[in-house]
Specification:
It holds the Pfam family Acetyltransf_CG. This protein is of the alpha+beta class. The chain has two helices and five strands, in the order E-E-E-E-H-E-H. It has a single domain, classed as Aminopeptidase (3-Layer(aba) Sandwich). It has a five-stranded mixed sheet with strand order 1-2-3-4-5.
Length: 91
């Protein structure tokens, strides 16, 4: 699955342009972004799409030299169980 990037979000649309998954983020300052929302359509749930979206933001943060504050409950859970994300976690 290929995710698209638009200002402050990664998302997935079907071939008809219907949005089926997204993760949104906002900028706190030059060094920090907040993950504030993760959503996956019922038709795609249970396939690990939300976790893939969190990883997209993590990769984005690494490339941009930013830290992440995961305020979204799903993202917060992903960070708590994935030690590989420690390098971008704002403490």
């Amino acid at each position: 699955m290929e995710f698209l990037y638009d200002t402050n979000r990664f998302y997935y649309d079907d071939e008809n342009g219907k949005n089926l998954a997204e993760i949104t983020m906002s900028t706190v300052d030059d060094d920090t972004i907040i993950i504030d929302h993760t959503w996956v359509d019922n038709s795609l749930r249970g396939q690990g799409i939300a976790a893939q979206l969190v990883k997209q933001v993590v990769d984005f943060a690494r490339q941009s030299n930013k830290l992440i504050m995961p305020l979204c409950p799903f993202a917060k859970e992903e960070f708590s169980k994935n030690e590989d994300y420690e390098d971008v976690l704002k403490k």
